[in-house]
Write a structure and sequence with these properties.
Number of strands of chain A: 0
Strand content of chain C: under 5%
Shape of chain C: globular
Helix content of chain C: over 70%
Helix content of chain A: over 70%
Order of helices and strands of chain A: HHH
Structural class of chain A: mainly alpha
Chains: A mainly alpha, B mainly alpha, C mainly alpha
Oligomer: heterotrimer
Radius of gyration of chain C: 20 Å
Number of helices of chain C: 7
């Protein structure tokens, strides 16, 4: 197997995730797209770990999974809070950052 | 836990670890108790303080007293240890016996071993890097322990009266304890990681205590300012420490002894050392209030006076000086102090000491006078370190702690009586009402001004000699000839004497002005109680005699065995882990000149305030604070005065220019560009176009000019519209721009690499 | 696209692993299709289910790369826990189950341009640097090896992650608390 087949698959997943983050209006869907991005990173980590025969790749993939779990927890909590306050999870309506 | 006795032959490093065990004095081995006690006290006060009879103050005082006693015991043990280090009794492990056998032989005849006591334990090992926690006890840290614990103890006692009845009394004592613990922890650190922790802890505590009365906005602003200004330097600290870790620590250890000895042994390239020294200088500039980053220090006066005394005398600001003193090889080798006659550290110090002294002249707030005075004195210390006079710098730190704490607590005593810090409106003539405070304050002022034979004279003179400037005074510096710095030091001596004279006059002489501003309802000021006065007595006593511990050699009046005791015990002994500290030859003529200059400065101020202002105020029948036609009312003097009142416009620079352009989001920048740059371009081009049109109306088609003007206008309009659209407030469009920019940057990178 | 190119390159090689490569191709195509559906479908629940497919595909990739333990963790945590969390989130926010077609086309095209630009840059860089890197997976990585590494060499990141999880736990409770 070539290293590149995994890397390019990961790149494709990453870019699809980026598209989702940028184009989706529903905050839940944006969170799912972020999961795509994180998984793309994990594939890269494990693939490079396999290339260099180093266990570090797997270890950090595990760390990423843990961090992603935390991220989903916090992210959903924030989405819930937004929903409770605004009765909507549409990101286009949330523009408090406008200066 | 293992007690590692740091032992090595000249230029040879023995690995630090549990290999060598010896029986140093119990107090020296267990010096970690000293910071631990106030730290425990902090927790106890927070948990139980409010329920106790004295609201937690008793826990703080008990803990700090215990710390002080231990520090004193440590000091006594050190005196013994320094002269007869138990080198022969080193217990060996088999592997190292050969090396240390040699060492035991030589130690009997000469001080070739390091007498510092290191007691560390490893708490973490990860990826080949060991993280240890431990203490390094040598003369420097023992001296600092003594000073910090003593000043803190006096401040604690003083505070029981000064902040009595405060809304956050318990909280105040808790953080005083933590502040003390943090500083003690910092000075005992045996590795740079621990120093960073202590450094930041000190910063946090000062932030909390400066904004103690946070209900008033200026106070919390002052706390924030102190914290943020220090963050600027902390970046330098982190970078410097990382550089040291990877070069001198070989990416394996943070140990101070290892880092220092590697540098002294010449195993580190010069370039990283320069970088580390410069970064650490930035850290010192922010922490120790050196010029351009000193602006937080005067604002820190917003905190309660005991805190100011603690910050200025023993903790916080001297942390920067201590850092340089502890990691001195970095600066000594990095800045090539020995060979040159100018370097960044010394010059920053020299500039600070004069500019800070000038600023002290125009302050009406008595604490701000003292604050700028601290800035100026810290400049002396930094300059001394920069010119290679290590002992003089540390000695000045030692004496300065006493007289500055004395002055601050004295000003607090005054403020306690008149309920204000403003010398011009609420003070004057107080010597009649508060004679005891007056005497102690004057002693502190004389010591600060460097009048013979008070403490400040000896240390300041040693710094001046250490510059080695000119050489025409008969003394020689240990290193290069730092003439510029000697001149600045002498100018600073005159300034110090003069502004302290002004301060003493405005506070204690003339007529009391409080009656006019406060009306009849305020009774006349009264002397403070014993819990305020006793610390003042102790400190002013020390301000008188502290200088005698480091008499210069060869003065003839006392036997030579009495001279340079301070240097003997505080300087790192032996070779290897410290750059060799040069000693300047003392110079009588320089001493006479410096005292003469100080007295001249004092006399000029005396003539202005005590004679002329006093006479005029008596003639007018109402108290005045300066002559109506004085030097600050016209011409150049006026301009200088305005510059000083505005503090060299540094705050304007920081808040008005730097903060305004970095704080605001993209919108503000875009808006500013739109309004100022583009509009002014439009304006300017329109104006010039109109002029050109008038001048060469016949030859140039007016439509062309109009078209140009219109075009510029349209372009600027479109640009503004486009820039405004970016700032939609939608996170996703920000993210899109971010990703697109990242992709473009990465693409550029790929293309450049492919080329 | 470029996947076809790499597959051709593989088949030309002698020590190829035909079975694995075919398997990979099938899984990869399924993952990409599922990922597209995640970001394009209008139905939130469908999106979550498509996401399950992608995550399972990632686990298969880990298996192909010999990282058994990571693959198992992936299935347990992602396919098990995270998806359930998502479905709960969908339920609690009563996100519209219907189509989500009201996205402005301008925004979509912008996002598509950015994503394609990113992919182009990455693909060029990867092909440029790693075209001849070959993976030889002899035997799967043992779990003991991974755990030894976590608890010795990577103990500091491990501790940091545990603190992070605790902080996230508390944070989620504080943020979502009803008051």
């Amino acid at each position: 197997m070539l290293l590149n087949q995994f890397l390019i698959l990961a790149a494709a997943l990453f870019c699809i995730g980026v598209y989702g983050v940028l184009a989706r209006r529903n905050a839940m869907l944006v969170l799912m797209s972020i999961e795509l991005i994180l998984n793309a990173v994990n594939i890269n980590l494990v693939a490079f770990g396999a290339l260099t025969d180093d266990v570090g790749g797997s270890v950090f993939a595990l760390f990423t999974i843990a961090v992603a779990a935390a991220e989903v927890g916090i992210g959903l909590a924030i989405v819930l809070l937004i929903y409770r306050n605004r009765r909507s999870v549409d990101l286009t309506e949330i523009d408090l950052l406008r200066g | 836990m293992s007690v590692a006795y740091v032992a090595a032959l000249a230029g040879e490093t023995v690995s630090i670890g549990p290999s060598v065990v010896h029986d140093a004095n119990w107090f020296l081995k267990n010096a970690w108790l000293i910071p631990l006690l106030p730290a425990i006290s902090f927790a106890l006060i927070l948990l139980f303080g409010k329920r106790l009879a004295y609201k937690g103050a008793e826990i703080g005082i008990a803990a700090v007293t215990a710390s002080f006693v231990l520090a004193l015991a440590c000091g006594v043990a050190w005196l013994d240890h320094r002269d007869s280090p138990p080198g022969e009794q080193v217990v060996l492990t088999a592997a190292e016996s050969e090396v240390v056998d040699d060492h035991a032989d030589t130690s009997a005849e000469e001080h070739h071993q390091w007498v510092a006591v290191q007691n560390s334990t490893q708490w973490l090992q990860s990826g080949g890097v060991e993280f240890s926690a431990g203490i390094l006890v040598d003369g420097l840290s023992v001296m600092m322990l003594f000073v910090v614990a003593l000043v803190s103890l006096l401040v604690h006692i003083y505070s029981t009266e000064y902040v009595a009845g405060d809304r956050r009394y318990t909280h105040f004592f808790a953080f005083l304890s933590l502040f003390t613990a943090a500083m003690l922890f910092f000075v005992l650190s045996d590795n740079v990681l621990q120093m960073i922790v202590g450094w930041e802890l000190v910063g946090v505590c000062s932030f909390v205590l400066i904004s103690h009365w946070w209900e008033e906005t200026p106070n919390s602003d002052a706390g924030l300012k102190a914290f943020l200004t220090n963050r600027v330097g902390d970046v330098g600290l982190l970078i410097g420490m990382i550089v040291l870790f990877f070069t001198a620590g070989h990416g394996e250890t943070f140990d101070v002894v290892t880092i220092n000895s590697e540098i002294v042994a010449g195993n580190v390239d010069h370039t990283p050392l320069v970088i580390a020294a410069l970064c650490l200088t930035a850290a010192v500039m922010s922490k120790s209030g050196q010029f351009v980053l000193h602006t937080w220090l005067p604002d820190a006066m917003a905190g309660p006076t005991p805190v100011s005394a603690l910050i200025h005398a023993a903790t916080m600001v001297v942390a920067g000086i201590f850092l340089v003193a502890r990691l001195y090889p970095v600066f000594f080798e990095g800045m090539q102090i020995a060979g040159s006659s100018i370097n960044l550290l010394a010059t920053v110090g020299a500039v600070t000491l004069v500019l800070g002294g000038l600023l002290a002249f125009v302050q009406d707030d008595i604490k701000k006078v003292l604050a700028y005075s601290t800035v100026s004195q810290l400049g002396y210390m930094a300059m001394a370190l920069g010119v290679g006079a290590w002992t003089a710098a540390v000695f000045h730190l030692f004496t300065h702690a006493f007289f500055k704490a004395n002055l601050f607590l004295g000003s607090g005593s005054v403020a306690h009586a008149v309920h204000s810090f403003d010398m011009k409106t609420h003070m004057g003539g107080l010597r009649r009402y508060m004679p005891r405070t007056y005497v102690t304050f004057v002693i502190g002022a004389l010591a600060l001004a460097g009048i013979f034979p008070l403490a400040g004279f000896w240390s300041k003179d040693e710094i001046l000699v250490g510059t080695g400037g000119w050489g025409l005074f008969g003394g020689t510096g240990a290193n290069g000839a730092y003439t510029f710095h000697l001149v600045m030091g002498l100018a600073g001596a005159a300034l110090t004497a003069a502004y302290m004279t002004r301060c003493v006059y405005l506070t204690f002489h003339g007529e009391w002005r409080g009656a006019h501003t406060q009306g009849a309802h305020h009774s006349v000021p009264h002397e403070s109680g014993p819990r305020i006065l006793i610390p003042l007595y102790v400190l002013s006593g020390l301000s008188i005699v502290a200088g005698l511990v480091n008499l210069p050699p060869g003065i003839g009046v006392v036997p030579d065995s009495w001279t340079e005791r301070f240097g003997h015990f505080v300087e790192p002994a032996g070779v290897g882990y410290f750059s060799s500290i040069g000693h300047a030859t003392p110079s009588w003529s320089l001493a006479v000149v410096s005292v003469g200059i100080a007295i001249t400065g004092a006399l000029l101020a005396y003539r202005y305030y005590f004679v002329r202002v006093d006479r005029l105020s008596r003639r007018l029948g109402k108290p005045i604070t300066e002559l109506p036609d004085g030097p600050t009312t016209k011409g150049l003097g006026r301009a200088g005065y305005t510059l000083l009142v505005n503090k060299y416009y540094l705050d304007h620079l920081y808040t008005g220019v730097i903060v305004r352009f970095t704080k605001g989001p993209l919108a503000r920048a875009a808006n500013w560009v739109n309004q100022n740059v583009i509009d002014s371009i439009v304006d300017a081009s329109a104006e010039s176009a109109v002029r050109t049109g008038h001048m060469v109306y016949d030859r140039i088609d007016q439509g062309l000019v109009d078209g140009f003007v219109d075009g510029t206008g349209i372009v600027s309009d479109i640009t503004g519209q486009e820039l405004r659209r970016i700032n939609s407030g939608r996170v996703q469009s920000y993210a899109a721009i971010l990703f697109a920019a990242a992709a473009l940057a990465a693409g550029a990178f790929v293309i450049i690499l492919a080329l | 696209m470029s996947r076809a190119v790499t597959l051709c390159a593989v088949s030309a090689d002698a020590d190829l692993m035909v079975a694995q490569n075919i398997f990979f191709a099938v899984v990869a195509l399924a993952m990409i299709y599922a990922a597209f559906r995640v970001v394009t479908t209008g139905n939130v629940v469908h999106a979550a289910l498509w996401l399950v497919l992608v995550l399972a595909g990632v686990a298969v990739n880990f298996l192909l790369l010999g990282a058994e333990f990571v693959a198992v963790t992936q299935v347990l945590i992602y396919v098990g826990a995270v998806i359930v969390l998502f479905l709960f989130g969908v339920m609690l926010t009563r996100a519209s189950m219907g189509d989500d077609e009201s996205v402005a086309t301008e925004k979509r095209s912008m996002a598509a341009i950015v994503a394609l630009l990113l992919f182009a840059v990455m693909a060029i860089a990867l092909i440029d640097s790693f075209s001849d890197s070959r993976l030889v997976i002899d035997d799967p990585q043992s779990t003991a090896l991974v755990s030894d590494a976590i608890f010795s060499r990577y103990i500091v990141p491990f501790e940091a992650v545990s603190v992070l999880l605790l902080a996230a736990l508390i944070g989620a409770v504080v943020v979502a608390r009803r008051d």
